[in-house]
Each structure stands twice: as C-alpha cells, then as structure tokens.
C-alpha cells in the first residue's frame, strides 16, 4: 500500500468512525511521517487515548493490529524517498514533471516559511552569540546545508567548523565538542544512525544542539535544544534542499544584522578579499 492508497483509506473511513476513533484517524492522516516512527506509547500520549484504542482503530482500518499499521506507514513514507520508485513515477508524469517540480519547490519554500517562529529565530541568534565554537554537521545531501551555515559563519567572522563524512568518522570528529559549544545538525531522510549517535554524544558533552529536519520524528530531535523544520519534498530524488537552504539563508541573514558592528567588520574584510585579483577576475565574482 503506497502513501496515496493509505491516505485514501483514512479519508474514506474517517466519516464513518465514532468520535474517539475519528480523532485518531485524523491525527494519522495529518501526521503520517511522525506516527510512522513514534512508538505506540508516544502516539497514545499525544492523543490522550489508550494503546488499546489505537489497536482498535488499526483493526477498523483493516490491519491485524497497530504494529501492522505502523509497518504500512513506514513503507509508505520510505517509498517517498526511494529514488527508483520516484524515478518511475517521474516517467509516468512525462511532460507534467517540470511544472510539478516548480510547484513542489514553491510549496517547500512556502511551508518552510509558515513553520518559522520569530521567537525561535531570536533564540537562535542568542545561542550563536554565546557559543564558543559552532559546529555544522550533515551527512550526504544534508551536508550541503551544513556547509552553507559553515560558510556564512566564517564570512561573519564566527568560529564555524564543518563536520561531514571524510577521512574521520563523524563520531571521531565530535570528540572535542564540549559545554559552551553549539552544534547545528541538518538531517533529512534517510536518517543516519551515526549522525544520531554523534549528536547524542554532543548532547551528553553538554553542547547546545540545534536541529534542522523535515519532521519532529527525526531521531536527532530527541536531544535538541532548539528545533527548526523545513519542507524537503521532491518528485524525483529523495529530498530537496531548497527549503532547508531557504531556512539557512533566513537564519544567517537575521544573524548578520543582529551581530551588528562585529559582522559589519568581517563583511568589509570579505569585500576586500573579493577584490583580490590573484583569486577573482576583476569586476566579475564580486557578489557574495
């Protein structure tokens, strides 16, 4: 059963369900990605219902029990990031693929914008100001977002560091992180065990953890000091980074203004660097 079929099943059943069961089914429909990775106890607590009620709803939907429903949810979600499945669907769309990509990326930016909270942005700025070192972590496509943060921090004269796959494992790279340091981790599906373990280690070493994910169900969120969400849907590859990059652009732009004179001086130095003709062609490449 793919995601569309599962959503259709829930929509068809919701009008026929009694009040409590309808509440559960509506939550499943609206939070499929989160529910797929929460335990039955976590879902029951969020809805203030019993585990038995969740099992009953699963059976009403045609599953043997809640475990079977959860398996179906996980398969439906994982299918969305399976490149083979997504390529097959892209071929089926034919000429409709390009408009679909455009619409999806517009939606990613719009949804990321809607999930932003000004108070959280302000908290982010204050955490950066207090941090001794700022480590930017990512694996695979998520490392491109981490590198954007790292680059912006360095341009603003901050002590930014990049952690991604390389000659050292990520777990090896986080050994020196300690209290007073800040770690910004971007984690888009598929979620990586080593990243979760590394962030958990950083939290145990009393570092401040800021997460950028597509959902609160991402494992790294369990130890986060501050959480941001970005829409990362894609009709072709597993995850799009347009939404996450948009979020990185907003956070670092606000930070550059709030840092005041310190950021201004660092950016002036950067302008002089851009005029270095040993590196850049004259006139061209002066925009940063």
UniProtKB/TrEMBL annotation:
Protein keywords: DNA-binding, Transcription, Transcription regulation
The keyword Transcription regulation belongs to this UniProt entry's keyword annotation: yes
Pfam families recorded: HTH_6 (PF01418), SIS (PF01380)
GO BP annotations listed: carbohydrate derivative metabolic process
SUPFAM superfamilies for the chain: Homeodomain-like (SSF46689), SIS domain (SSF53697)
Domain HTH rpiR-type: 4-80
Tagged with keyword Transcription: yes
Recorded GO MF terms: carbohydrate derivative binding; DNA binding; DNA-binding transcription factor activity
PANTHER family assigned to the protein according to its UniProt record, in alphabetical order: GLUCOKINASE, RPIR-FAMILY TRANSCRIPTIONAL REGULATOR
Record protein name field: Transcriptional regulator, RpiR family
């Amino acid at each position: 059963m793919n995601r569309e079929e599962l959503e259709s099943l829930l929509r068809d059943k919701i009008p026929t369900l009694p009040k409590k069961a309808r509440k559960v089914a509506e939550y499943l429909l609206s939070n499929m990605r989160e529910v797929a990775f929460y335990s039955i106890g976590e879902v029951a607590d969020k809805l203030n219902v019993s585990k038995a009620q969740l099992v009953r709803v699963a059976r009403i939907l045609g599953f043997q029990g809640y475990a079977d429903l959860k398996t179906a949810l996980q398969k439906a979600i994982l299918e969305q990031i399976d490149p083979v499945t997504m390529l097959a669907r892209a071929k089926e769309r034919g000429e409709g693929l390009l408009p679909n990509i455009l619409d999806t990326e517009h939606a990613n930016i719009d949804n990321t914008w809607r999930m932003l909270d000004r108070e959280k942005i302000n908290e982010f700025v204050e955490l950066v100001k207090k941090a001794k070192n700022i480590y930017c972590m990512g694996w695979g496509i998520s490392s491109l977002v981490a590198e954007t943060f790292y680059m912006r921090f360095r341009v603003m004269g901050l002590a930014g560091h990049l952690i991604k796959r390389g000659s050292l494992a990520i777990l090896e790279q986080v050994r020196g992180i300690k209290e007073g340091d800040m770690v910004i981790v971007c984690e888009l599906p598929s979620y990586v065990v080593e990243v979760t373990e590394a962030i958990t280690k950083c939290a145990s070493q009393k570092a401040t953890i800021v997460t950028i994910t597509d959902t609160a169900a991402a494992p790294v969120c369990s130890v986060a000091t501050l959480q941001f969400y970005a829409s990362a849907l894609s009709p072709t590859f597993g995850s799009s980074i347009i939404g996450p990059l948009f979020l990185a652009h907003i956070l670092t732009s606000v930070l550059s203004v709030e840092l005041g004179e310190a950021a201004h001086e660092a950016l002036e130095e950067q302008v002089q660097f851009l005029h270095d003709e040993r590196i850049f062609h004259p006139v061209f490449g002066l925009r940063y």
